[in-house]
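During the no-cost extension, the postdoctoral fellow (Dr. R.K.) reprocessed legacy sequence entries with the updated structure-token encoder. One reprocessed record is reproduced below for audit purposes.
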Amino acid sequence: MDWARRIELFTVVVASVVAVVGLWYSNVQTKQANEQARQANEQARDDRALAKEGQITDRYTAAVGNLGEDKVDVRLGGIYALERIMQDSRRDQPTIANVLATYIRTHAAKPPGQRPGRPG
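Re-encoded structure tokens follow.
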């Protein structure tokens, strides 16, 4: 085999090795980028969940505060706000049901002529 042929063969082999290394490096970079994107998506999802929980807590606090107001329309707004929170957050349903039941028990009008401790 003459020198020109050997140089051509060597050039083809080097080019092939460079191409294979380039493909491997691109694959590694793509995997790293995909992993970073996955982590960013998870972080964004966690951030959204945390923000939602904070918003529900703020709404809950305001609604319960409305139950203690003197104006009937404000108290009614608090009740409706708690109802909406119950629809939005399954986790808070038992707590809200307890709050509303306690509110009803403590604020329900007693029938006239009934004294505390005696059945009517």
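DSSP finds three helices and no strands in the chain. The radius of gyration is 35 Å. The remaining legacy entries will be reprocessed before the final report is submitted.
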